[in-house]
Amino acid sequence: MSAARPDIRAPGEIDAAWLSAVLEAGGVDAAVRSFEAQPVGTGQIGDSIRFRLTYDRRGQDAPDTLVGKFPAAGEASRATGVMLGNYLREVRFYQQLAPTALVQTPRCYFTDVDEATSDFVLMMEDLTPAVQGDQLLGVSLEQARLVVEQAARLHASHWADDGLDELPWVSGSKAAPPSAADEAAVSALWAGFKLRYGARLDPAWVEVGDWLAPRFGQFARTEDGPRCLTHNDFRPDNMMFGTAAGGHPVTVLDWQSFAYGCGPTDLAYFLAGALAPDVRRAHEPELLALYLRTLQAHGVVGFGMDELKPLYGRGAYLLFGTAFFAAMLVTQTDRGDEMFLQMLGAAAEHMRDHGVAR
């Protein structure tokens, strides 16, 4: 007899029968006897839990563990996820776009969202023994190459696909609600950020922020070039990297902010924040060339280095903006403070290197 379709539950309401139904929804015939649950990861807007399973009946392909993602327990973080549409967006990505996105994502066994309340559940494969990236530690050059290839695959998958404009849950689409990031809101967040973190801010970063904040909406509205499917929070914390023990070389997580936008912005967001500035500067030509080769290998034509460079040069504006937006909107933590300051400083360096900010 088929198990009932899973409903949307909070972590504390989950039982063995529900987990059995999740597996069946994902095509696995198994009956879960019991489980252990433990928090995992460092998400800012969603909470993740690993479920270690034991079985009464274990069919083929039944996993030892699952990872579930749920709304953030922190009130401020949850409110931000709801306000920005992040929870709905991530569920719709896995339901409708992941199969064609060409990028490595976790296997999704079951996901659903209540549009009225923004309650959601996302049950995925456990990517262990791969390990989560760390924004504060950055990545190796070899890892950066793997990520650049994944970025190009993602962008090529829906390159100039105006069908995305019809989907209201795709940020930046014509059907999406207007962005809340207008000049007044951005300037207010930047002013609050300076008040909170002023003693920890390099004067050069403040100069960049003072220049960017009143122009941020203009930057977001005037991204030139072909549009494509973008991640929009493309950083190590949202990736899992394979280890000597196994795992996919790199898997991209956290599809809460994806958009129909400018692909090179993802590229700048990642390289500015994940590589030390001197390493980035030394290897940018190689990495940009790799991005273009991978785009071309997946069918993109008419887009070369002349088109890429200016878009990439300005793209770190989103890393800078995300850093101070998120710092002021999500539940404050010590690690979050360190991470947002790292992102802000790295983005300022990139923008100054590329002559974007005075």
Give the secondary structure arrangement, pairings included.
Layout: H1 16-25, E1 30-40, E2 46-58, E3 65-71, H2 75-83, H3 86-97, E4 108-113, E5 120-125, E6 131-132, H4 141-157, H5 183-197, H6 203-212, H7 216-221, E7 228-230, E8 239-243, E9 246-252, E10 259-261, H8 263-274, H9 277-297, H10 305-314, H11 317-329, H12 334-353
Antiparallel strand pairs: 1-2, 2-3, 3-5, 4-5, 6-8, 7-10, 8-9
Helix pairs in contact: 4-8, 4-9, 5-11, 6-12, 8-10, 8-12, 11-12
Tally of separate helices: 12
Q: Could you list the spans in which at least 5 consecutive residues all have pLDDT below 50?
A: none
Instruction: Tell me the CATH topology of the largest domain.
Output: Aminoglycoside 3'-phosphotransferase, Chain: A, domain 2
Number of domain units: 2
| Amount of helix | 40-55%
Nearest-angstrom radius of gyration? 20 Å
Query: In this structure, how is the largest beta sheet organized?
Result: 5 strands, antiparallel
Separation, N- and C-terminal Cα atoms: 66 Å
Q: Which key features would you list for this structure?
A:
358 residues; Phosphorylase Kinase, domain 1; Aminoglycoside 3'-phosphotransferase, Chain: A, domain 2; 2 domains; 3-stranded antiparallel β-sheet; 10 strands; 43% helix; globular
